[in-house]
Specification:
By secondary structure, the protein is mainly alpha-helical.
Amino acid sequence: MSHLKNVWEWLQNHWIMPTPAELIAEELVHAQRSKLRHQSSMEYHTAIVAYNVARIKRLEALTAKQEVVE
């Protein structure tokens, strides 16, 4: 119990409650980072889809050529 009391005293002496402006600024930074992560993952997803579409078209063209030869 003494340890908890010491921790509480340390917190009261060393931790400063952030101002509302600081809290808003921190939340804004988190929101911007989240938005960037989302955009990045969407761009990555779009690139993968484009790659797979091109791959499918190439394979379909090869299959069509193969059928013509046979």
